[in-house]
């Protein structure tokens, strides 16, 4: 189970990194709904 959680966290981190990388182009408040998914 822990391995699955670690794997998911790595995937989420990469998705967020890619998402934040594109944020300067968008600058939308739509990025906020993603934050609750992290906790």
Describe this structure in words.
With 39 residues, the chain is mainly alpha-helical. 74% of the residues lie in helices and 0% in strands. The protein contains 2 helices and no strands. The longest helix is centred in the middle third of the chain and has 25 residues. The radius of gyration is 12 Å and the shape is rod-shaped.
Write the layout of secondary structure elements.
Blueprint: H1 2-26, H2 35-38
Structural class: mainly alpha
The helix content is over 70%
Number of strands: 0
**What radius of gyration results from the CA coordinates?**
12 Å
- Order of helical and strand elements: HH
Oligomer state of the chains in this structure: single chain
Distance between the termini: 17 Å
Content of β-strand: under 5%
Q: What's the mean pLDDT score?
A: 75
Global shape: rod-shaped
Biggest pleated-sheet summary: none
Flag low-confidence runs: none
Tally of contiguous helical segments: 2
Summary, kept brief:
The chain is mostly helical and 39 residues long.
Keywords:
mainly alpha
């Amino acid at each position: 189970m822990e391995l699955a959680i670690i794997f998911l966290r790595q995937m989420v981190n990469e998705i967020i990194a890619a998402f934040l990388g594109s944020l300067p182009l968008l600058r939308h408040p739509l990025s906020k709904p993603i934050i609750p998914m992290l906790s």
